[in-house]
Amino acid sequence: MRRNLKSQPGDAACLTPRQVEILTLIRDGRRDTGYAPTLQEMADRIGVSKITVYEHVEALVSKGLLARRSYKARSLELTPSARLPDDRPTLLPLVGRIAAGRPIEAIETLDAVDLERIYASRYPVRALRVMGDSMIDEHISDGDFVVFEERSNPRNGDTVVALVDGQEATLKKFYKEKTRVRLQPANPAYQPIYAQNVAIQGVVIGVLRRY
Prior knowledge:
Layout: H1 17-33, H2 39-46, H3 50-62, E1 66-67, E2 77-78, E3 91-96, E4 108-114, H4 115-118, E5 125-129, E6 145-149, E7 159-164, E8 168-176, E9 181-184, E10 193-195, E11 198-208
Antiparallel strand pairs: 1-2, 3-4, 5-6, 6-11, 7-8, 7-11, 8-9, 9-10
Helix pairs in contact: 1-3, 2-3
């Protein structure tokens, strides 16, 4: 089946490079300060005249990608239809801190958590969905996603994705012993796996969970 590659109204492919710049400035301004930059500020930033910025803004409003509140300064904002090249589902707004122990003062921040940057690695990074509870004491539960680096050189104590005897894949803590490998569960209800033929598929670097 052939895919329809026609651009949608909010796609960056429908916009000029200058319009993408203006949308980005408005989005980032609202994210960083809570309000949009002025037309003059945008003109100064991208090196064009204020009237040029105005014309682009009007075009973006007519395309349904920008909205403004009448008679209110700095009120430009992106509509839900606007999509920019650097908008990614892995970029999550970071709005502050919250205490899990003693209460702390609530301080709002305007930043972002970039999952791609958190898990950036010189190795390929992959994810697997966990089935079972053998790693529960490592706070890895059934249904979680483990993020792992695709490499075969773990250290003792690392949580690894291991292939035992070329057949059974398992998630366990890795320990190299004299003549064998011990794959240790993190649940007293399970026994360790002792094996000599163990291929390490990856080393876990994170856990993702959705409630």
